[in-house]
Amino acid sequence: MRYEGTVYRPPSEAGSLIIQLTIGCARNTCTFCNMYKDKKFRIRPLEEVAEDLAMARKYYSRIKVRRIFLADGDALIVKTEDLLYIIDKCKEYFPEVERISVYGAPKDILHKTPEELRRLKEAGLDMVYMGLESGADEVLKEVKKGVTADEMIEAGKKVRAAGMILSMTVISGLGGKKLWREHALGSARVISAIKPEYVGFLTLMIEPGTEMYDQYNRGEIELLTPHEVLDETELFIRSVDAEGTMFRSNHASNYIPLGGTLNGERDKILAQIETSRQRSKFRPDVFRGI
Asked: How many whole angstroms separate alpha carbon 36 and alpha carbon 6?
């Protein structure tokens, strides 16, 4: 296999075969993101991708490859017929594969027709990871996400209607102190409308080389404390209505691990938050960085 630049994948794809169908991110405007800054976006020639799959089959000749993740950040921007060709090649070289997944930028999803998404699902594209980041239009505009909350809802519903598994991410603290309530309530509204199979919370990390890093150093952004992140998360959990959605906040960026199924385990998740609050009164090391 041949890889170009730093390769990113969702945490749940740690054991997957990663194949770069695209290089980089087609938009790359989000103020908080430092991924793909070392790359100029392009779609790889299909024959190169097919060659990588053939090389991977030889390398893993004695190993069953159960999952394949098509990187980088904008695999769904690829023409549907070309995507179908690559999915077919995945199945040809790895007939044992159980799941093929991609990152799905909201704009790329919106540009696909419902029929195209259904065809991709029928061919074997099983799961889409979509970054919500925030459900508040004010926050989405400030971080230059390039879509509105309602467009997020439309994109998410299209993925679910096609029968694909949808995993969405929200970034805790993205609205800062100024917009934390709007961020929590807006995100709850979007997740409630879509009801994805999974929603994961990350915690905002200011990365050098990003526009947000410069804004922070100029004093234009006031970050939430760990306790305020808990308040924001609690407001989201109390406000969201997404029966059956698996909620997780156990990324390396998170201060504490949280998890449970919405809505049935709402009280369990709220109890986890309250336990962490109480423990932090006596053990400052409960939250990293305090």
From this structure: 7
Rounded mean pLDDT for each run of 10 residues along the chain, 290 residues in total: 91 95 94 91 97 97 97 94 98 98 96 98 98 98 97 98 98 97 98 98 95 96 95 98 96 91 97 89 53
pTM for the structure as a whole? 0.94
Unique residue bearing structure tokens 């926050």: 139
Pairwise CA distance, residues 134 & 111, whole Å:
21
Say if CB 281 and CB 287 are below 8 A apart.
no
| CA-based torsion, 226, 230, 232, 233: positive or negative | positive
Please, are residues 246 and 195 in contact by the beta-carbon 8 Å criterion? no
Q: Residue 285's pLDDT is what?
A: 58
Q: 200 near 253, Cβ under 8 Å?
A: no
Q: Give dist(CA 245, CA 195) in Å, integer.
A: 6
The predicted pLDDT at position 250 comes to: 87
Q: Which residues contact 122 (CB under 8 A, 6 or more apart)?
A: none
Half-sphere exposure (Cβ direction) of 22: Cα atoms closer than 13 Å: 26
User: Judging by beta carbons within 10 Å of its beta carbon (0-12, 13-18, 19+), is residue 46 exposed, middle or buried?
Assistant: middle
Rounded CA gap, 84 and 114, in Å? 15
Cβ contact 127:164 at 8 Å: yes
The number of residues in the chain equals: 290
Q: How many CA atoms lie within 13 A of 222 on its CB side?
A: 5
C-alpha span between 21 and 52 (Å, rounded): 10
Q: What is the reported pLDDT for 37?
A: 85
Determine contact, residues 258/273, Cβ cutoff 8 Å: yes
Planar angle of CA 127, 140, 111, nearest 5 degrees = 45
